[in-house]
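[Q] Does anyone have a clean C-alpha cell version of this?
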Amino acid sequence: MVDNRYATALVIGSVLSLLATVYLSVAVGTQHWYQYRNLPIKHEANNASELREEFINGEFDEKTYSDTMFRLNGTLGLWWRCILVPGQSHWFKEPDPKMVTQCVSFTLPQQFASKFKEPGNHNSGEDLLRTYLWRCQFLLPLVSLALVFLSGLVGVCACLCRSLTPTFAVGVLHLLAGLCSLGTVCCFLAGVDLLHRNSALPDGVDGSLGWSLYLALISSPLQMMAAALFLWAARSHRKNYTRMTAYRVA
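[A] Here you go.
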C-alpha cells in the first residue's frame, strides 16, 4: 500500500509533467520563438509581393529568408518562418491594407542543411557550430517529448504492478527530458546570436524573444520538479520498505 505522502507526490509530479508536455508541444508547433519589429512598415505593395513570392516559393537560402524577415516583421520558430504582409486587396489600392501573417515550414532536409560562416555565401565554408546548434534545437525537443512518453509507459506499468520501484526510472527520464528542453532553448538562443553576428540587423529593426520560447523555457523546470518528486517518492518508499522488512525479520 502506498503512503499518502508518496501518492500526493506522484499526483503533483504527474500534473507538472502534463503541463510541461503541453507547454513544450505548443512551443514546438508555433513560430513565435524570435520576432523582428520594423515599425512603421513602409514598403510598396509590389515590392512586398515580390518579397513574399521569393520567401514562399523561392529557393531555400538562409540569407534571403533572413533579410525578408528583417524587412517584413518576421517571426522565427523551430519549424516555421513567417512574415507580415498586406492581405489580398481589391482592384483598387487600399491606403491602409490589413496585414496578415504568412508562414513557411522548414522541411526535414532544410533542418539538416549546412550553415555557412557568411549566410548565403556557400564559398565561405561551413560553420559547424551553427550547423549543429540548429540540428540540436530541432532534435532535442523531440527527444524530450519521447522521454516523457516513455516515462508515461513506465508509470502505467508501475501502476499495474502496484509498485513504486519503477518510479525511480520515471524520475530519471523526466530529469533527462528537462535537460533536453533547456538545451533546446540554449541552442536556439546561441544560434540566433551567431546569426546576428554574421548577418547584422538593419537599422531600425529590433529583435525580441517570443512567447513560444518562454513556454519551452518554463517546461524545463516543470519537468525537473516532476523528476524531483518522482525520485523522492521512489527513494523514500524504498527506505521505508527496507526498514519495515528489517523490522519484520527482527
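[Q] Thanks! Anything notable?
[A] The two ends are 21 Å apart (CA to CA).
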